[in-house]
Design a protein that fits this description.
Elements: E1 4-10, H1 15-26, E2 31-38, H2 44-51, E3 56-58, H3 61-71, H4 83-89, H5 98-120, E4 127-130, H6 139-145, E5 152-156, H7 168-175, E6 179-186, E7 196-203, H8 210-233
Parallel strand pairs: 1-2, 1-4, 2-3, 4-5
Antiparallel strand pairs: 5-6, 6-7
Helix pairs in contact: 1-8, 3-5, 5-6, 7-8
The structure holds 5-O-phosphono-beta-D-ribofuranosylamine.
Length: 243
């Protein structure tokens, strides 16, 4: 069993980050969170990192995207950014949505280069865990992290491949599902489409509400994420991979 180094990216409350930190401190997960990055300043997850003496950084996506819009194509796009190559790789936009794809790829690459610069300062990590990180990475970033193997993972609030996107629990509940759940998966070029590492599910009863469904799901997320990261310690993160 190997002790793993974990980088965590968040956008908000960081309750999954907390679950990961707690598991490492308890010893149920043989690992260490070596940095926390956020796309939003002043969020609770950053306070959690500070409380546990974990270094953190912020790359303010909102500001970067606004500046990119204002600059009308004069923004500082990374030097090694290759639009035609990235357009071929990306899986989010149909080929007739070239403007949207270009906007996404260029604005995100600016932010992603800043994340990469911050990450460089830390030791090499075994896994980059997205924990409530509400941004989609472009192939520009993914390829730079996944040089040797897939090492970006995400937790999603639904039983994928059902209900990808940002509102997994709401979508599950509003559809009338009798079972909900959460998924930890590798990140690929699509939205919540990467190979599944682990899942947990719960029953949705007639008296459940969106709030109770969210609460049930989050509780399971806090168990599932450390369990899935543990597979990286055992070198078993790919055991369920079919694609
Ligand atoms: C979680 O449900 C996660 O699956 C989703 O965002 C929610 C917030 O997570 N993507 P956290 O409290 O910030 O970890």
């Amino acid at each position: 069993m190997k002790k793993i180094k974990i980088g965590v990216l968040i956008s908000g409350s960081g309750s999954n980050l907390q679950a990961i930190i707690d598991a490492t401190e308890k010893g149920s997960l043989l690992g260490e969170v070596i940095f926390v990055g956020s796309d939003t300043p002043n969020v609770k997850g950053l306070e959690r990192a500070e409380k546990h003496n974990i270094e953190s950084f912020v790359v303010n996506y909102k500001e970067i995207i606004t500046d990119y819009k204002k600059s009308e194509g004069k923004s500082e796009i990374p030097q090694d950014f290759n639009l035609s190559e990235l357009l071929k790789k990306q899986k989010l936009f149909d080929s007739d949505k070239l403007d949207k794809a270009k906007f996404f790829l260029e604005s995100r690459a600016i932010a992603e280069e800043k994340i990469l610069k911050n990450i460089e300062k830390f030791e090499k990590f075994d896994v980059l865990a997205l924990a409530g990180f509400m941004r989609i990475f472009s192939p520009y970033f993914i390829d730079k992290i996944n040089k040797d193997k897939m090492r970006i993972v995400n937790i999603h609030p639904a039983l994928l491949p059902s209900f990808p996107g940002t509102n997994g629990y709401e979508d599950t509940f509003n559809y009338g599902c009798k079972v909900g759940g959460c998924t930890v998966h590798f990140v690929d070029y699509g939205e919540d489409t990467g190979p599944i590492i682990g899942q947990k599910c719960f029953t949705i009863n007639p008296d459940d509400t969106i709030e109770t469904v969210k609460a049930k799901g989050l509780k399971l997320e806090w168990q599932l994420y450390p369990e899935c990261l543990k597979l990286f310690c055992e070198g078993k993160e790919n055991v369920f991979k079919r694609t």
